[in-house]
Amino acid sequence: MKLIEPIVREADALAALRRDLHAHPELCYEELRTSELIANTLEQWGIEVHRGLGKTGVVGVVRGHSAPERLLGLRADIDALPMTEVNRFAHASRHAGKMHACGHDGHTAMLLAAAQHLAASRDFAGTVVLVFQPAEEGGGGARAMIEDGLLQRFPVEAMFGIHNWPGLAEGQFAVSPGPVFASSNEFKITVHGKGAHGAMPHLGVDPVLAACHMVLGFQSIVSRNLRPIDTGVISVTMVQAGEATNVIPDHCELQGTVRAFRPEVLDLLESRMRQLADSTATAFGARCDFHFHRNYPPTINHARETAFVQAALSDWLGPQQVLPFEPTMGAEDFSYYLQQVPGCYFLIGNGEGQHRHAGHGLGPCMLHNPSYDFNDALIPLGGSMWVELVQRWFAQPR
């Protein structure tokens, strides 16, 4: 591995920019300050900028020395999470209830590092489309940018994206073809019974009892309806009912999430949940309203583009630094790009948390944890990696 010297020289400035973003987190579709900072920075480097795709998204366009008709997309997400940071170092969040707990500030900094060098050198034969995307954390910002014409205005040959991964060693990457992130889906079930005095349950219909049987029954769907070689998760995460200890309420509400890698598996999970909810409610003399909302589709890497990333990283770093990407039941809206164009989404190791400065929280440095912080040592590594992939991509035939 050889880091690009101009990127290394700018590492401190880019780390300062990353920490500024960390200190000023913005939630999905509210990334006004973040977008303006990104756009202004790109323009200072002489990069063509397009604002407002997906409401607060920014696109930078860098043309190489030739073949401008060939386009390659690189994506970084820019939004934060609605949670309170417990770190107390200087760049901790200044906004209660908002935190860069997933490293999108670092993803942005790595792509900016590459953008600065690509714009200064233009040492590639093609056009790089830098996608700074809002609203990954539940807002479907990728879908919004696509609906605003991203892929029509910039018809890329392929799209690549990366996520930092705590627990994976600094300097290591993980990449695999096929499904790597699951689909994300939500359900809400309202069980309607008949309220009564808690001491006289025979005069009512207890929706809580029916709801509890539903929760247990849902777990049998995964264990008894899915093939053992398929993967699915049904998690009831919210149960809400009642206002007094001596009152059987007239309704009970269940909410939760369902995850799967394959559409046919998700179809089965939804169908069986609906059947089980309806029949269980009927069995207890109640009725239910069942609502199922499909959010992000599964993230499925394309074989050719994944093989390209694996080969490029192995050649650059050594094969021992490029590990298989063990699929996760988390979700990622990069999936929307991969439904439209070939591409690959992969991981860069964020380490175990030793990079955190004094004043960090006592919890582990895991994603979506209030003690998390991005590892700034990844900025020159990730920036150099993007440049390496760009140059290798355009060096091969279309």
Q: What's the CATH class label of the largest domain?
A: Alpha Beta
Number of domains: 2
**Residues in β-strands, percent:** 15-25%
The count of DSSP E runs of length 2 or more, i.e. the number of strands, is 16
- CATH-derived topology of the largest domain: Aminopeptidase
Strand order of the largest sheet: 1-2-4-3-5-16-6-15
Task: Please state the second-level CATH architecture of the largest domain.
Answer: 3-Layer(aba) Sandwich
Kindly report the name of the CATH homologous superfamily of the largest domain. Zn peptidases
End-to-end Cα distance, whole Å, is 26 Å
User: Helical amount among residues, as a percent range?
Assistant: 25-40%
Structural class: alpha/beta
Order of helices and strands: HHHEEEHEHHEEEEEHEEEHEEHEHEH
Rg from alpha-carbon coordinates: 24 Å
Keywords: Hydrolase
Domain Peptidase M20 dimerisation: 186-279
Organism: Roseateles rivi
Pfam families: M20_dimer, Peptidase_M20
Write structural notes for this entry:
Residues 186-279 form the Peptidase M20 dimerisation domain. InterPro entries: Amidohydrolase, Bact_exopeptidase_dim_dom, Peptidase_M20, Peptidase_M20_dimer. Keywords: Hydrolase. This protein has 398 residues and is α/β, with parallel strands linked by helices. It folds into two domains: 5-181 and 299-395, Aminopeptidase; 183-294, Alpha-Beta Plaits, CATH 3.30.70.360. It is built from eleven helices and 16 strands. It has helices at 5-9, 11-23, 32-44, 104-121, 141-147, 150-153, 207-224, 263-283, 303-317, 335-340, 378-395; strands at 48-53, 57-63, 71-77, 127-133, 158-166, 173-174, 178-181, 183-192, 196-197, 232-241, 247-248, 251-260, 287-294, 299-301, 322-323, 343-351. The strands form four sheets. The chain has an eight-stranded mixed beta sheet. Strands 10-12-8-13 form a four-stranded antiparallel beta sheet, covered by helices on one side. Helix 4 (104-121) packs across helix 11 and helix 7 (207-224) runs antiparallel to helix 8. The longest helix is centred in the last third of the chain and has 21 residues, at 263-283.
